[in-house]
Model the fold of this input.
Amino acid sequence: MAIRVIIADDHEAVREGLRWMLHADEAIDVIGEAADGEELLALLERTPCDAVLLDLTMPRMSGLDVLAALRAAGRAIPVVVLTMHDDAAHVDRALALGASGYILKSAPRDEMIRAVTAAATGGAYVQPSLAKPLLARHVVSVAGADEMASLSPRQLQLLRALASGRTNKQLAHELGIGEATVKGYLKELYERIGVESRAGAVAYGMRHGLIR
Done:
């Protein structure tokens, strides 16, 4: 079954381009579009989907406001932020509000598809190139080394794998263990670093210089 995606961006040309790129992959079906945050929330009320591609800068209601509204309503809809904002503040804020992914509009089609697929299957994806501006904002040379030393090799391996968008099934295959064991390892990792989700773990890793 194809991954059902809704695109939210205030520029029609951008939506058309994204629709064209995503439709090139048979595993993805764009089932709806919205030109602003309010329109997106109304669309989500009547249209079930597997993932949302969300612009941050939109009229009437911004992408960050949409994320906040979804979180307040307890709606666990996988959202991949697709934006021009590459600064650490926007990345941190979007992930803190529950975004499952964060990529730039300049990202190649394959990377967009990886991000959407990861989000729709319960994973998380942050564009690797965003680690550099994020690290530039935080002093991580010493803190990062301390954090790395406090994690086991397996926990560090899992943390870095999460940033690439791997699913539990993919992790289990790569590590030669069962999915239930992967879930157990992830639970221990989340408790160790004080987060509740994959996106939170990725944000933690980027803040502390553990993901490059």
About this structure: The chain has two domains: 3-126, 138-207. The CA atoms of residues 56 and 63 lie 4 Å apart. The beta strands are 3-8, 28-34, 51-54, 79-83, 101-104, 125-126. The chain is about 55% helix and 15% strand.
